[in-house]
């Protein structure tokens, strides 16, 4: 839908397209119900989830449009549970049924989203509002796994620990035992799939052909199974293509067994007095065939009951879990939903959730910014104590102040579905109010001329405003708000947040932890947060936090004129470049390729972080704004200077490079020469700065200085020289026009 002005003809055309989409949605929904209930749904559900596994689906976003997405598996499961179960049919063509179902589910999802075209308006304000609502709907529909698996498990387990006593009062078992049982389902699923995939790889080897292929397939089978398959394969064993097709079909028939469990098996290690209660809770998290209603189907895309009840109840104390992904993604929300059924337990869970968020934020900042002074529950007043303001966490690192405001409120279901009033209220609580809170403290620091006193959980402390060069503000939430947090200019236009609001970047605590973990250096983490705010202020883009992390991992946000030219930047999906890798303690974790950096430049950054001279965070920011081509250019100048001054203590080499977008130009100067007395050293800096700034046309310059002969350090001096106007025409050297600063 266009956000601009639409003519009457364009509105009419959009309405027709929306009407067609509504018809397509109803048609494909009807066809899906028929397809998913025409054959044993467990068979094609198993095939669907194995497609996700084999394709290696990233839980955050699909790798490409042809892959089956996790939310589509959820939809298929809900559709299959809308009717009584069809008994297994040995003659059913399950691969064909699966292909038809997955094709229809894609059409149905697209039609659901396209229905919104019927809401197009001649009024551009209404269109902008609708586009924002569409954005949150699309994000709610398609995105799963805002946390990494280990983060979900940690939170679920720690939340359960906090509410154990109250939970047992209502459910007869401890919440941690329920989490352990659900985690066991995930682990068993993953273990079974891993073993099966290893078996598949063993017989699918290209070198296996004919008898070798058959032997590899049947190697681990019992004699009866081996004889039965060998007999079936006799007529095609000389045709590898047909033989492979037969064996693949048999292989697919095994998949459903990977996801079948007995309730009793999951409580074998639980305390005996809690075992039956745990089974009762698991049964509450299970749906029978026929439990999904027609009303559920109409709103299935934005409110799928499968997310809260992911298990399928079967006869004989059995249940079916469609793979570990769905249960793993929603584990924490399942625990919260169980707590939400009882007011007192819900209140206890909400308090535990808020406490956990603040603790996790503090632990994350302290772990990944070890040289920061971290203060929690920072209180201050600007009216003599009449009014006391509070910030959740303040970190002071060198000349940088980071202000974090933590909000644990949930984005409610109506807001996720795009209900305007609910979404506006949620954004006010999660984004607008904490932004105002952090802005108040930032302005207090900027306006002060003397040290400011604060109280905190750790005791009183001071901030010296004159030494502060950068203040970054962040809203830290518990649940990700997806790409909405990067759309505040459009949110203002749509009336979802106030026009005059100064919005701070918003990210979940899980995203903050992931960013800090994947960004390798302390100075880079500070740089990310500072540039994150600038990117949000300067550009128009669509992305969530992991997309931005992927962008930073390749560019360090050095995107040139794209930052300022006003064009729409489509970064949504860049997180596909982030890969899950094996981790000994976590199972898997995200990883990112580091930004291209020369060894020469890496050594400078490492040296800066090791020595941490006054102003090191700001020096680091300037160094991190240099892309690899400029790094090579500067290294070339250094080598030239060393060549010219080698054995010539009387020579002083200097040169400069100016680069960057037109609105963010910066100059870096290179100085190479023999060690000299302080007075001469200062004169060398003045000479170098004067030349570099005249050439670059800037007001300040970062100078990197190397002594010849070389020392063991990656550089010997770093500093910023800033040009100032002469106070009088008679000023001489003792009042120079250049002032050295740790800027």
Automatic annotation (TrEMBL):
Q: Name it.
A: Uncharacterized protein
User: What is the organism field in this record?
Assistant: Agrobacterium vitis (Rhizobium vitis)
The lineage is:
Bacteria, Pseudomonadati, Pseudomonadota, Alphaproteobacteria, Hyphomicrobiales
């Amino acid at each position: 839908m266009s956000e601009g002005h639409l003519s009457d003809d364009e509105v009419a055309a959009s309405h027709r397209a929306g009407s067609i989409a509504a018809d397509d949605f109803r048609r494909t929904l009807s066809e899906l119900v028929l397809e998913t209930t025409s054959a044993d749904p467990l068979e094609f559900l198993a095939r669907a989830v194995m497609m996700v596994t084999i394709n290696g689906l990233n839980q955050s976003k699909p790798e490409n449009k042809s892959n089956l997405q996790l939310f589509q598996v959820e939809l298929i499961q809900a559709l299959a549970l809308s009717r009584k179960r069809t008994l297994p049919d040995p003659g059913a063509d399950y691969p064909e049924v699966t292909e038809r179902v997955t094709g229809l589910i894609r059409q149905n999802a697209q039609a659901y989203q396209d229905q919104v075209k019927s809401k197009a308006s001649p009024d551009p304000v209404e269109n902008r509002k609708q586009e924002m609502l569409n954005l949150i709907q699309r994000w709610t529909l398609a995105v799963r796994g805002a946390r990494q698996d280990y983060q979900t498990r940690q939170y679920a387990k720690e939340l359960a620990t906090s509410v154990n006593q109250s939970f047992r009062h209502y459910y007869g078992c401890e919440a941690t035992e329920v989490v352990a049982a659900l985690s066991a389902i995930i682990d068993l699923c993953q273990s079974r799939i891993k073993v099966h995939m290893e078996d598949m790889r063993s017989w699918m080897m290209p070198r296996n052909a004919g008898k070798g292929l058959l032997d590899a397939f049947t190697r681990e089978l019992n004699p009866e199974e081996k004889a039965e398959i060998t007999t079936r394969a006799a007529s095609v064993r000389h045709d590898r293509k047909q033989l492979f097709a037969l064996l693949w079909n048999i292989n697919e028939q095994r998949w459903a067994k990977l996801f079948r469990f007995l309730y009793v098996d999951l409580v074998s290690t639980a305390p005996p007095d809690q075992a039956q209660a745990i089974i009762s809770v698991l049964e509450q998290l299970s749906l029978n065939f026929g439990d999904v209603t027609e009303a559920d189907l109409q709103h299935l895309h934005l409110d799928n009951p499968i997310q809260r009840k992911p298990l399928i109840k079967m006869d004989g104390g059995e249940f079916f879990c469609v793979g570990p992904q769905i249960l793993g993604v929603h584990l924490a929300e399942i625990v919260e939903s169980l707590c939400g059924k009882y007011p007192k337990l819900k209140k206890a869970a909400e308090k535990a959730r808020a406490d956990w968020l603040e603790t996790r934020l503090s632990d994350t900042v302290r772990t990944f910014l070890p040289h920061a002074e971290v203060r929690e529950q920072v209180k201050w007043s600007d009216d003599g104590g009449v009014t006391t303001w509070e910030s959740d966490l303040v970190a002071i690192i060198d000349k940088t102040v980071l202000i974090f405001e933590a909000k644990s409120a949930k984005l409610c279901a109506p807001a996720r579905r795009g209900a305007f009033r609910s979404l506006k209220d949620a954004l006010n609580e999660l984004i607008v109010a904490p932004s105002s809170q952090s802005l108040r403290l930032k302005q207090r620091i900027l306006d002060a001329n003397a040290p400011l006193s604060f109280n905190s959980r750790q005791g009183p402390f001071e901030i010296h405003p004159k030494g502060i060069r950068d203040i970054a503000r962040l809203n830290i939430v518990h649940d990700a708000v997806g790409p909405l947090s990067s759309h505040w200019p459009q949110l203002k236009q749509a009336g979802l947040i106030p026009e005059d609001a100064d919005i701070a970047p918003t990210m979940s605590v899980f995203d903050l932890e992931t960013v800090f973990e994947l960004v390798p250096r302390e100075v880079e983490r500070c740089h990310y947060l500072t540039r994150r705010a600038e990117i949000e202020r300067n550009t128009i883009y669509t992305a969530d936090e992991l997309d931005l992390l992927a962008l930073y991992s390749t560019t360090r946000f050095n995107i040139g004129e794209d930052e300022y030219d006003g064009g729409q930047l489509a970064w949504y999906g860049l997180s596909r470049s982030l890969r899950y890798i094996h981790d000994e303690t976590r199972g898997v974790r995200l990883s990112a390729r580091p930004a291209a950096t020369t060894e020469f430049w890496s050594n400078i950054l490492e040296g800066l972080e090791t020595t941490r001279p006054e102003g090191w965070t700001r020096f680091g920011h300037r160094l991190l704004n240099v892309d690899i081509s400029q790094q090579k250019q500067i290294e070339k100048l250094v080598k030239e200077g060393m060549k010219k001054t080698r054995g010539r203590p009387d020579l002083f080499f200097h040169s400069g490079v100016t680069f960057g977008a037109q609105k963010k130009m910066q100059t870096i100067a290179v100085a190479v020469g023999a060690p000299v007395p302080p007075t001469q050293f200062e004169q060398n800096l003045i000479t170098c700065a004067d030349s570099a700034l005249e050439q670059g046309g800037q007001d300040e310059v970062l100078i990197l200085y190397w002594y010849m002969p070389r020392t063991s350090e990656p550089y010997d001096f770093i500093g910023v020289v800033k040009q100032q106007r002469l106070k009088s025409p008679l000023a001489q050297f003792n009042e120079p026009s250049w002032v050295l600063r740790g800027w």
